[in-house]
Records
---
Amino acid sequence: MKRAAPLIALATLAGCDTLLGTEGQPQPLVVIRLRVEGRQRIGPDVTDTPPRLRVALLWGAQIVPTPLCILPPESEQAAKVLATGCPDLFRFVPERVAANAALDTSTDEARIELFTVPSADVMIGDITSRVVYGSLVLYDDRDGDGALALDRSPRRVDDTSPSGGDDASATATPSDAGPAVDGPEIPFEPRLPGQRDVVYAASFVSMTEPDQRLAFREGKFNDAAAYYPRNGCAAPPPGFSLLGAGGFSAADALVAAAQGKLPQQAAESCTEASLAEGVVVLRVRPPEQLQGIRCRARSGGQTRYRAPPAAGLVLDGLQWACVAMPWIGIGPKPLPQVQLVVATPPGEPCRDVIHYTLRGCRRDASCDVPDWDLTKNAPSWWPCPASQQP
């Protein structure tokens, strides 16, 4: 144990998530205790395979919602796109699976041991003031690999063009904007059949619901940060802790955001406990209500634009609409052009919206020097007004 301790300290300072090369069994820094309620409601899967129940800790990502999903829809068709493709604005979004452990089905209890502090790349803030929140989940390990698998929307990815993936550098000219294909492009790749992990309970699902979250804080605490805010509750203590809050309504959150404020939590709903004292309670609920908890956000939730492919899009069975560029009153107004927005297929657990514009750059449709400009030469299939006026 004495030989392992310096290595544990070194890994902690380095911000590593995985400790390798130690001899013997190191002692965890902290232990998270969990209790499951309602496990009896979980049955075998469609193949009659008994569930392989495990628990996992997910560190949460900071997300910037796309303005399209914040503002009221401008048409009935746009409303259908938002209803199908926009996820819950206030959901917990996973950044990383930090740890997994088996559930003891004889007691319906579990222990997650952490051997390091969270790494710097998952924490929000700078070195003087940063924090990270985590959700604890119960899942059926359908693929049997011992770890919860995160997912993303099945958006078509091509990292070589302005039509491309999340972080593609748009270097193509207008004449070759969009990938070369034999026929119309499919906006979303079909989901391949296979076993996917199923989540049955989560301690933190959405800020509009009561939550219980794991917190880790270093340095000061920024009360004005919009990272899963607990406005009205006390700041989390330094180090690890278990926090709870009652949630707020979506309507109250939108009103507060319009006023430049954070939504308020009811003070009486706020709880705080040390890991030595607290127990995370996971209550089983229908998995259809928890499909999004495994969904990572593409590009941090920020809007990425694409040039329309020359050969067209396969829009059969998809909700799409022509809408003006949204503006939420912050920053410069966008150019008054029309965008084509396409939602993920109905029933897709990882909801998403793809944005196509005749002019723009990957990160900004109103960029001064566009990576593509087809405003005077729109593809023949383009269903939206070709002019820059909606």
---
Amino acid sequence: MSQLEQELNNARNTILRLSTAPAVAPTPTPPPPTLPTHPDSNIDPRLFPDYGNPVPRPGSVDAMGGDAGFDHHPIDGQPFYGSSSAHGFTQQMYGGILQKDDTPTEPEIPIDPALMEPVPNSSVPTASYTAPENFSLLPRELADHLMHLYWDRVHVLYPFLHRSSFEKAYEDLWKPKSQHHRHYRPSSGLGLGAAEDPSSAIFHCAFNAALALGMQFSDLPLSEKERLSAACLAKSKDLLKLDLFDDGNLSLVQTLLLLTQYFQSTNWPSKCWITIGLACRLAQGLGFHIEKVRPGQHELSPDEHEMRRRVWHGCVTLDIVVSMTLGRPAMLLGSKARSLPKPLDSGEESLPSMTNDKKRPASIDFFTETVKLYRIVGRVLLNIYRINDEQDERSSPAEEDRNDDMTLELNNELIKFADNLPETLRWRRSKGDNAAADVLERQSHVLHVRFLHARILIFRPSFLNLCRSKKLLDGSNGTTKGTSSLPEPVQTALELIDAVREYSATDATGAWWYNVFYTRTAAMVILLAGACPPIFESLGEESWQQAWVNCVEILTKNLPQYAPVKTCLRTLTALRNNVLRQRSEAGSKETKGSQQNPVSEFELNINGQHFDPFEFVETDLFSDFGFDFTQPLF
């Protein structure tokens, strides 16, 4: 009986299974998609900010406007604004620039559409935001050394942090929480240090940016500096989340200024430009451009007022610098709403007096003069280069006359600026032998090269017009009209090369990427003078060659051999070789007994098919030159 019941149950189960089974065999269930994993993480990878985003390629232009030495990879949406001037030289130097049809394409990886759905907002932070490694510290001795370099080499030129409060927070990094200073007031708005707890994400973001900047002045091997700088930058970027931008505060703007400075040393020009743009917008939104406190805002201490003033001027100044180096529009040109920076009430910025005078110099004096100088540079960009104009049209004769008047007016402003400098910042003053003298020497030199570059910037468009003009020669004798002495930009370029050569290998210099920028700017003017026979005759073969030797010395001996330094030298060498080749061809024809004026013969050669120093420049490049390079050079 029991056996019969068991058989009936088996039959019943078989009938039930057959009645509910599908007519067609089911499709095997696909395995769940494999998601990219992050080591040491148990968080869904879709929550990571970099999930699904392609790894960005290095740009073909570095953030100081020079050729980065990378092949150009076309992308779907080319940047609207052209690259900066020096990048055009790459087109001739490298034969490896890919043609459109030859550009390799990467295989497309299919992605499950379900994975592309937006992840609901959650209170769970992303792994990169909370990852302990982003809050890790370098060995104390190394961190102390790098912070010392930051204060000594960067902060004295860009005083964007409240040093005393930042240093208190820095000391607390190495102490237990119970031993921290009780001075952190997030609502105070003083900025990094006093307003930000040392365990906060924004503090570590800025701290790592400061370490990366200090690293640039260290004596560590080049490969080690690059590795450690990249590690610090990675932590800083991981901690800089969009949530921080909801309200914004002084600390965030300060952090963006530090990152802008560091990005200037990289091959990421767009990151540099966008970062300073974010800083400017946040500063405006927080009212930093307004001198008085808004109604309803809590009362600010004198130091809090001053830090906001400095940060605003830092935004304006770096906005102009980045616009100048990249040839892109600026946001805050012409801003004069705020009064000039002043020393902090705490007196921490006073330098030891080097004379018997009762008035002690302050390190902030340099930044005050920098603000004045870049107000002039901003006017140069607006009125001569018209960097913010929406239309790019050739100037009419009347406009060219106005440009000439504006050139003289701005040059007079620049001369007046130099005449009114404080005695401690004059570059022709006698040098001291104490700590204050070291700071002032560094500030004086940096201000000097900025001044010389500004003069080149003012006269460069008219100098290029002079080189192009067919009226350069005076008939049969080949004399030069209006060039009995060297043109202003040529003389200034010689001075700039000498100044950079003298200081670029010393502790009195600024950042290496600025030295590359100044050397490239001056060298291009000198090389262009070599392609313009009357100006070359005024300059002389010996002076022309010596200027080149000095440039090579700067780029091979004085500066660390980062990729942008080497690329700058290759770029300039390519241009110089073209000038020398054309001069050699002109000399050979003269030796063969040509009856033509040798200078005119040289001009005819350049007019022909042989050589235009800028013939390989793309039409949308050299925007910072303020000149149309689609026209023949002569």
---
Amino acid sequence: MNSPLPVMPARPAHDAHDAFGMNTHLGYQNPENTNRFTEETVDLLLELGVGKVRQKLYCDENRSLNAARSGLSRLMAAGVKVCAPTLIDDDATSLEVARTRMDLFLDELERNPDTYDLRLIEAFPGLNEPNGGKKATAAWAQQTRWAQQAIYEQTRARHAFDHVAVQGPPLNRRGGRGAQGVGGRNPGAGQQPQAAAGLSREERRAQRVAGRLTPEERQERRAAGRGRLTREERQAQRAAGRLTPEERQAQRAERQQNRRGGPAPGQAGPVRGFEAVLSSDAAEVGDISHWVDRADMHIYPGDQDTFNGGPPQAFVEAVRGMYLAGRPVSVTESGWSNCSPDDPDGQAYTGGGKSCPESVTAKYAPKAPLNALLLGHQAIYAYVMLENQPPYADAGHNLRSSKFGYIRTPGLEPSTWERKAQFHAMRRFLALFADPGPAFQPAGLPLGIAADCPDLQSMLFQRRTGQHLLALWRTVDLYACDPKTNAGSYLQIPPAKVTVTVDGDRPLELFQPSFKDGSVGTWKTASLTLDVGDELLVLAIG
């Protein structure tokens, strides 16, 4: 007699849908920026079926404010939730200035009920990558604390925002060798720190541009009304950015250490990798748990699967000093730069950071929200909706940072735009798991899964109709890029045999959202053996 199947617990299907968000730049209204086409961008977001966006708020009367109002009004009318960054470092020259500015953002939301649905404001993050510029450590760390305190206290003082989660400041990944994230500032996953003296010319060049603001960051600062600072605030800002004699000496010592490949005179220890540098930056900020509901992180996987690339566990551990009380995690930027030799413009890329082909990104992308749930994260936000169109300022840093989009933009005009493979992959994924409605308690299912591979992951979901969705995927890397040359190789993943057993004959329907619309097979059986390779499979069980 066969043993009864164990009951596999299920989650609401919409959990998978809600674990994915998209970064947008509706406020970038430069005439030569694709993001100025607000209506066309919103049309594409609604076509994608996204349930969350990360979009900066504005509170000063300018075209950025008008564009954000227009876009968010349409998105919220469709039920899209918003993770809404507010303060930038120019808003946090003192605690009082930060409080005043945060109140202006909250006023903007509360005083325009025809534009904003406050119920759909999900989160206010802290300062965006405050450690990524050239300010003295003490200066940016102090601004980060002022901003975090102001965001939390001003938000909690208004009951209209009781439901909004205040997230911490996502720190910039610094240290180690290579360039991994947007703008080429982040080192490659899994790489060991090495001495700068051994870097190639391309790597030294990537290192030099690492501290520069990207065109998007410069636009963000202009849009946020930097010119509206008072004279006193500008003076305070200049003072905050100045290095003390001790800090200048420490900075020289650090440069010396990097050039020599070892500790500077009077120091001990090896050249630091990104974990040590990030941990040090987090320690400079200090414990901000009392001003935070969630930790906020930017984790770019380079050429890897999001379960492996980063790696996520190293990021969480590195910033633990800011969250001593423990906080859930939201990854608000993640993505792949499509500038491999097989991508448009990829042959021109001179290297310095990792790239990943569109065909591989289409396989990675639908796994990302499931990996987020597997890791216990609240959500993962793709960076970014739109590419930047050519011409590019250079064939390295600038080209690479322009290629993270889900929409290819060969030209400025929307008529030239093209949906990338990952856009369609996520459109199918989101349609498959979309199940909006009141909260409900999903029922588990008697289910057996037997696999001949160690890297299989599975997760069971249930729709409100009673139908179950079994997600099957493997946390495997599919591409290996050499950041020096941009040469890459596709990693072959032999399919694994996976047998799914249910309690009696049931209607089964299989989906492969990476490249195929609709189902790819239907059965009525109690047992089904599938080949699970490098793509996500979703088995609907009636």
---
Amino acid sequence: MKLNDRQIKNAKPAEKPFKLNDGKGLYLYINTSGGKLWRFDFSHNGKRKTLSIGKYPTVSLVEARQAAENARRLLASGQDPSEAKQQEKRERQAAVSNTFRNIAAEWHKHRETGLTGNHAARVWDSLEKDVFPALGSLPVSEIKVSQVKEVIEAVAARGALETVGRILQRIKAVFTYAIRTERAENNPAVPLVGLIKAPKQKHQPALPQSELAEFYRRLMLEQAEQQTKIAMQLIMLTFVRNGELRAAEWAEFDLDGAEWSIPAAKMKMKAPHIVPLADWTLELLAEMKELTGHSRYLFPSVKDPDKHMSENNATISYTIPTGQCRKYHYNSVGWIN
């Protein structure tokens, strides 16, 4: 006779454990402390086995019968219900450990050996900011194209169109790593490549050679901070980037050896970048030494000596012979307006 809820609720523990049978291998095992456990007995490959289904009332009578029926279907197809349950448990555990964030951490660890510390940190920070809030806790094998699309559309919505491509590239790389390590089968970032195009960069015109002498003459006459004027000259003499000069530290300079060693981390390189210093450059540095030699930076911020000069402070205005006013600042090895 099949069980009913009243029988199950009224069943009391005895001196020894006993069973209440529901039929076809399903029964309720009641132990001496009153615990009521659903079990299913079956035979597979000539061996008697027992499948633990769960505890009553957490698992109801209806749910226990459904679980037993599922086990019978597995047996009919030649599968062992106990092994199937263990496999399902392993898959659940894998889904928890193989989240997008965890896979991304593995990918980043393998990749960062070829990156400078600063660049590796920026890559991870971009994932923390734009990707993990939406995808971080999801099993990597279950993430859909639509979910990745929502991430890059959110980045685009705040106007960071140039960042979209980098974010999508990093998401795509994480999925490629997941596929390579057999934690995913598809890459939902691939169909989205090119969906949101970054705006074409507008290259600003460089200072023509014909205007260089006039620019230098006006630079010397400019009512600007002496630090700014020297910075303008040094960028022309050293051919370093804007940020590299503004972030230059006195500890990086060997004035006796006429060399400036820029740390690899600042250059996104594996080795320091050595900049030879010409006599004119050394003269300018000697002048700067008198002005800022007490500071960490060559060009410390006026507002905060613990920081370096901002890009805004490295701007000079002058009127070219045609009467047109331009603002010039240094960028990479060129002067742009």
